[in-house]
Write a structure and sequence with these properties.
The chain is mainly α. The chain has helices at residues 2-23, 28-40, 49-58, 63-87, 89-100, 103-126, 131-140, 145-169, 171-180, 182-203. Helix 3 (49-58) runs antiparallel to helix 4 (63-87), helix 3 (49-58) runs parallel beside helix 8 and helix 4 (63-87) runs parallel beside helix 7 (131-140).
Length: 207
């Protein structure tokens, strides 16, 4: 039963995984990683780990560069999210929040910012919680931009360098594990992705 549930997402994930492994050493790969990391911080639903992991496995000696590119793209995207919340919320930001149905959660994020803005940004940057909600809310509630940048750099770098570093240390066993249990891991990935949005909605009281 579990394998049947995992089949649909795993096919798409397998295709993406195989494709990324294939071109991870091309000149376009770093730009693609930067782009998806940038977009995920402001509006895109898929986390950059889906590209970071295959690229780090395919080029383990450049693990630090892969993590650095991913971090830079994500932090740059956080600034875009902040600007959307600060200056374009009524025209652009509200559409993004509508799409994910997270209006109640935005108010809760505002409360978190009033308590400890750096901790709130860092937590969202390091965990599977959708980062875009916090970057847009940062502009809406006008937290200091340096605070957003500091929390983003520490959280995103901590996450991406940790992932890429572990893949550098245990690359071959990890790759064998992924190949062996790919269907189940695809299901887990989708569950984590959905779970991140569920957590944010619960922060808003599920309204």
């Amino acid at each position: 039963m579990l394998k049947r549930l995992a089949t649909a997402p795993s096919r798409a994930m397998r295709a993406l995984y195989d494709w990324t492994i294939g071109w991870s050493r091309t000149r376009q790969a770093p730009w693609a990683l930067f782009g998806i990391a940038f977009a995920e911080s402001s509006f895109f639903p898929i986390p950059p780990d889906v590209l970071l992991i295959p690229m780090a496995l395919a080029a383990p000696r450049r693990w630090w560069l892969t993590a650095l590119i991913c971090t830079a793209g994500s932090v740059a995207g956080a600034v875009l999210g902040y600007c959307i919340g600060l200056a374009f919320y009524e025209t652009v930001g509200v559409r993004i929040v509508d799409f994910y149905d997270l209006h109640a959660a935005m108010e809760t994020v505002g409360q978190k910012y009033s308590e400890n803005a750096f901790a709130a940004v860092f937590t969202a940057a390091f965990t599977p919680i959708p980062f875009k909600v916090f970057t847009i809310a940062g502009g809406v509630f006008q937290i200091p931009l340096p605070t957003l940048l500091a929390g983003s750099v520490v959280g995103r770098a901590g996450r991406f360098f940790l992932v890429a570093g572990l893949l550098r240390l245990f690359g071959e066993p990890v790759q064998r594990f992924i190949e062996k249990y790919f269907d189940i891991l695809s299901l887990v990935f989708v569950a984590l992705l959905i779970g991140g949005f569920v957590v944010v909605k619960m922060m808003g009281g599920g309204r």
